[in-house]
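Ligand: 4'-phosphopantetheine. Inputs:
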Amino acid sequence: MTRRAIYPGSFDPITNGHLDIIERSANMFDEVIVAVLVNDGKDPMFSLEERVEMIRAVSRWSNVRVGTFEGLLVQYAVEQGAQVIVRGIRAVSDYEYELQMALMNRRLEPRVETVFMMSAEAYSYLSSRLIKEVFKLGGSISGLVPPDVEQRMKQRFPS
Ligand code: PNS
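Predicted complex:
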């Protein structure tokens, strides 16, 4: 049986922390689908198409592909034939929200298992939200996002 995992999120934009989790997942599962949420109502910095493009540009694993989804994540997982949802956990503070989601998803669809992965220590404080804030205030985000993403952010918001 093909072990297929979904790694869902907003990815606005993808960070080195996300890439670390994608790499760990690619090593663990036969196939990984990085699934970008459509319409998350968070007033994103990058459009859905841009976010997908950026992930494609930096994803270097042959068993990883990028998709988009609307509506319930577990429904998308079933449609894609995925048995697993991967979520990265950075700190204890992530755990409560992640536990709620995992248990709700299990209630909705018991066939889909959530697997938590710890991000590398170096990225354990990283979030897309902080990256955007630091960047907008003129701080350096070098080494925290892939060079491609940093480039795009600079083009979009020249200082
Ligand atoms: O990493 P993010 O941006 O916090 O991702 C959140 C995401 C996309 C995993 C979550 O919002 C989600 O799964 N949304 C889809 C709607 C859904 O299934 N909601 C019920 C989850 S309990």
